[in-house]
Amino acid sequence: MPVELEAVNERVRSARARIGTILKKKWHLDQLLGVGGMAAVYAATHRNKKRVAIKMLHAELSQDEAIRKRFLREGYIANSVAQRGAVAVDYDDVTEDGLAFLVMELLDGETIEHRWLRKERALSPREALSLVDQLLDTLAAAHGLGIVHRDLKPENMFLTRDGTVKVLDFGIARVRELSTPQTTLAGSAIGTPAFMAPEQARGRWQDVDGRTDLWAVGATLYTLITGKFVHAGENAQETLALAATRPARSIGERRPDLHPALIAFIDQALAYDMAARFPDAATMQHALRLTYAQMEGGETNQLAQFAIPDLQSMPAARAITVRNVRPPVRVTMSGQPTVRPSLAAVAAQTEGDPTTGPKGALRALADDRRRLWLLVTAIAAFGLVAIVWLRSRAEDTLPVIRAGGGIAASAASARERQAAPPAKTSTPAQAPEPKAIRVDDLPREPESGIRRH
Question: Which of 25, 100, 203, 439 is 20 to 30 A off residue 186, Cα-Cα?
Answer without folding.
Answer: 100
